[in-house]
C-alpha cells in the first residue's frame, strides 16, 4: 500500500495558490497512475488524499491518515517538498500574503515542469 497525501487549502479561491502545490502534485500523480503509460503496476494499492484542512492545520489530517493506515507496518515516510519562494530580496510581501497569491505565468511554466517531474518520480517510489 502506498499513500500519497497532498497538502493545500480547500476551496476554489485557493486552487492556483502557492499553498496548494501539494494538491497540484496529488492531482498530477492521480492523472499519471490512471493513464496507460503509468509504470505503477498495482494501482489499487495506491491511496491519494488531499487534506480538507487548511494548510496550517494539516498536521492533524496527516496524523489521522497515518494512524488509520498503520497497517502499512512502518513509520518511515517519504516527504516531497517543493519550494515556492522566489521573491526578490528587496520586495518581500508578508509570508501569508505571498503563499496565498496565485503563481505568475512565468512561475507556472516552471511549476508545471516540476509537477510533471515529481509525479513521474512518485510513480517509481
TrEMBL record:
<comment type="similarity">
    <text>Belongs to the PTH family.</text>
</comment>
<keyword id="KW-0820">tRNA-binding</keyword>
<dbReference type="GO" id="GO:0000049">
    <property type="term" value="F:tRNA binding"/>
</dbReference>
<keyword id="KW-0378">Hydrolase</keyword>
<dbReference type="InterPro" id="IPR018171">
    <property type="entry name" value="Pept_tRNA_hydro_CS"/>
</dbReference>
<dbReference type="Pfam" id="PF01195">
    <property type="entry name" value="Pept_tRNA_hydro"/>
</dbReference>
<dbReference type="GO" id="GO:0004045">
    <property type="term" value="F:peptidyl-tRNA hydrolase activity"/>
</dbReference>
<dbReference type="InterPro" id="IPR036416">
    <property type="entry name" value="Pept_tRNA_hydro_sf"/>
</dbReference>
<protein>
    <recommendedName>
        <fullName>Peptidyl-tRNA hydrolase</fullName>
        <ecNumber>3.1.1.29</ecNumber>
    </recommendedName>
</protein>
<dbReference type="InterPro" id="IPR001328">
    <property type="entry name" value="Pept_tRNA_hydro"/>
</dbReference>
<keyword id="KW-0694">RNA-binding</keyword>
